[in-house]
Amino acid sequence: MGKMGLINIGFLGFMFMSSLILCKAQVPSTSLEYNFVLEESYFQRHCTNKSMLTVNRSFPGPEIRVHKGDTVKVHVQNNGDYGVTIHWHGVKQPRNPWSDGPEAVTQCLIQSGSNFTQEIIFSDEEGTLWWHAHSDWTRATVHGAIAILPDDDTYPFSTQPDGEETLVLASWYDEDVMTVYDQAANYTEPDVSDAFTINGLIGNYTSSCSNDGVYTTDFPLGPNGTLSNGTRVIMLNLSEVVEIVFQGTDDGAEDHPMHVHGHSFYLLGSGAGTNTTVYYNETTDSDSLNLADPPLLNTVSVPKYGWAVIRFVANNPGVWFIHCHLERHVTWGMATALIVGNGTTVETSMLASPKMPTC
Ligand SMILES: *[C@@H]1O[C@H](CO)[C@@H](O)[C@H](O)[C@H]1NC(C)=O
Ligand SMILES: *[C@@H]1O[C@H](CO)[C@@H](O)[C@H](O)[C@H]1NC(C)=O
Ligand SMILES: *[C@@H]1O[C@H](CO)[C@@H](O)[C@H](O)[C@H]1NC(C)=O
Ligand SMILES: *[C@@H]1O[C@H](CO)[C@@H](O)[C@H](O)[C@H]1NC(C)=O
Ligand SMILES: *[C@@H]1O[C@H](CO)[C@@H](O)[C@H](O)[C@H]1NC(C)=O
Ligand SMILES: *[C@@H]1O[C@H](CO)[C@@H](O)[C@H](O)[C@H]1NC(C)=O
Ligand SMILES: *[C@@H]1O[C@H](CO)[C@@H](O)[C@H](O)[C@H]1NC(C)=O
Ligand SMILES: *[C@@H]1O[C@H](CO)[C@@H](O)[C@H](O)[C@H]1NC(C)=O
Ligand SMILES: *[C@@H]1O[C@H](CO)[C@@H](O)[C@H](O)[C@H]1NC(C)=O
Ligand SMILES: *[C@@H]1O[C@H](CO)[C@@H](O)[C@H](O)[C@H]1NC(C)=O
Ligand SMILES: CC(=O)N[C@H]1CO[C@H](CO)[C@@H](O)[C@@H]1O
């Protein structure tokens, strides 16, 4: 993905400089309940002082630190100016779409002045994921890391680390991200961000408020406003094996990071064109798919002018969003949902619905 693509994502990615565990005694204990207080707070970066929505006045927000298989309660108290939802990106949440978070797919907004407790059910995930708002463009400022330690607290490599740091890479918009959202919602190409941040900081701006280090806006024009209604959801029975071919058919401006909720999937293969679209050909391309050791992912970058093939077992009953992770593309409707039916037993059906926010 080119750097301009990254800018517009509004965020992306964590890294452990070195990691986990030295010995049990040094492992911070896992807190199984977190209080997230959403509120507007002033931040000054890049010569701009602005109010923005954050969790606990923190940008990035608090880190969630758990062990594999934990269940965590997050009490969200929305003292901000508008409604939000929160998604636990890459956490499969078996049988529990109720706490997955995408606005208008699994829940209504947590309205300003109200609370919502989400139960985050970890299963086989290990490593680093992230949580982020999943409504409008609030994700740009409402996000944080999730660190999932192995259940036996062992570091997976023979060389032990000297220390551990979580790095959260994000974007900084000088303007209010809701203004940027409005631009996208009007089907115009929204402004790109003004800078990148690492753990909320832009870099060394002590000398002057110059433009040093800021990327320029050479972002190509996106879709020009062809609207359509009628995205259909995909209905599946539990345990069906699903293969999805993502086929890029646009003008190839950028790769599309396609994210699937509720499941991890195997990336079997992908193909990219340079100037014209390369279509997946079932006859000729299926032989080249990697069925031996494909990577297991929750988001795949579909190459521009190209395709990607994924496969997974629909083993999680519920409603699960599938969408491009570029904010403006979600705004423009590049999304659908997977509805996986209940199994035949209680254990293979969705959990009972908790009390959900009302619309
Ligand atoms: C967030 O702030 C609230 C109240 O200010 C506090 O009780 C809570 O512990 C904080 N949460 C985290 C995760 O730091
Ligand atoms: C940012 O603006 C707010 C509101 O005017 C003010 O209270 C705060 O001191 C300002 N911050 C900085 C760093 O100037
Ligand atoms: C939200 O939770 C906070 C902290 O527990 C509580 O003080 C407040 O009354 C709750 N608000 C509502 C609307 O329930
Ligand atoms: C979006 O369009 C509406 C209606 O045309 C207009 O009132 C509004 O100013 C536009 N917003 C932006 C950010 O361009
Ligand atoms: C920040 O920039 C100033 C001026 O260029 C320089 O003197 C200072 O050492 C830099 N600080 C850091 C932490 O890099
Ligand atoms: C969209 O773009 C195409 C190709 O650039 C152009 O032919 C068409 O007129 C544009 N449509 C609108 C509504 O601007
Ligand atoms: C989409 O559906 C809404 C509600 O039925 C309607 O108002 C709107 O005109 C439709 N848009 C298009 C592009 O068909
Ligand atoms: C799901 O199972 C039902 C009942 O066995 C069957 O009729 C239906 O065709 C199945 N749906 C799909 C998408 O396979
Ligand atoms: C796929 O490739 C085969 C073999 O080259 C070709 O005959 C066929 O037309 C291609 N299919 C499509 C849809 O392009
Ligand atoms: C699936 O199971 C849950 C929990 O038993 C139940 O509430 C829900 O109505 C079921 N859904 C369907 C479509 O049968
Ligand atoms: C016709 C055309 O646009 N060709 C371009 C295809 O892409 C290559 C590599 O990016 C360019 O060098 C060509 O000019």
TrEMBL record:
CC per GO annotation: extracellular region
Gene Ontology molecular-function annotations: copper ion binding; oxidoreductase activity
Localization terms from the record: Secreted
Cross-referenced PROSITE patterns: MULTICOPPER_OXIDASE1 (PS00079), MULTICOPPER_OXIDASE2 (PS00080)
InterPro entries, per database record: Cu-oxidase-like_N, Cu-oxidase_C, Cu-oxidase_fam, Cu_oxidase_CS, Cu_oxidase_Cu_BS, Cupredoxin, CuRO_1_LCC
Leader sequence segment: 1-25
Domain Plastocyanin-like: start-end pairs: 41-151, 216-342
Pfam families documented for this protein: Cu-oxidase_2, Cu-oxidase_3
Keywords attached to this entry: Copper, Metal-binding, Oxidoreductase, Repeat, Secreted, Signal
PANTHER family in alphabetical order: LACCASE, MULTI-COPPER OXIDASE
Family: Belongs to the multicopper oxidase family.
Name of the protein in question: Laccase
